[in-house]
Amino acid sequence: MNTGSDEPGEVVVAPDGAADETPDETTEGGAQDGQGLGSKAPEFIKARRALHLSWQVGVFVIGLAVVVAGIIMLPLPGPGWVVIFGGMAIWATEFVWAQLVLRWTKRKVTEAAQRALDPEVRRRNIVLTSIGLVIVIALVGVYIWKFGVVMPWKIKDQ
User: Fold this and answer.
1) DSSP string computed for 14-30
2) Cα distance between residue 111 and residue 122, in whole Å
3) Which residues lie across from 26 on neighbouring strands?
4) Helix/strand/coil for 131
5) Closest Cα to residue 87, out of 115, 64, 104?
6) Is 0.90 surpassed by the pTM of this model?
7) Which end of the chain is more exposed for a tag (fewer CB within 10 A), N or C?
């Protein structure tokens, strides 16, 4: 089990090549040595195994509650994805797997943003949006021409 501590018998996961880097070099994921993988718990908590384990359980439960709230918000009103990523960030303070998922997600979001800002893609999106608007306006015009517009206050009881 990776608790992120440096106690004997514990496994500490470091990014590839982190042992060869100097403190001012960045790792493959773009994080500096101070932002490496592992537990972000205070040292006095990491020093005691039982306290650290209970700390991890607490972080997991709080992160799980936030992620579940985000999942509930997906079909309901609310910022579902933002809350889910907030829960993942809570988990990332303690668990390496969550840190890796967040790094991957940040990388994919950055790539998508760069693709969206590409002039050719923007031009295509503007053309498709314009075509969609013309189709919607034409459909609304045909509906109004065929059925007319009746204001709600002019509807008679039938």
Assistant:
1) --TTGGGS-TTSB-TTS
2) 15
3) 32
4) helix
5) 64
6) no
7) C
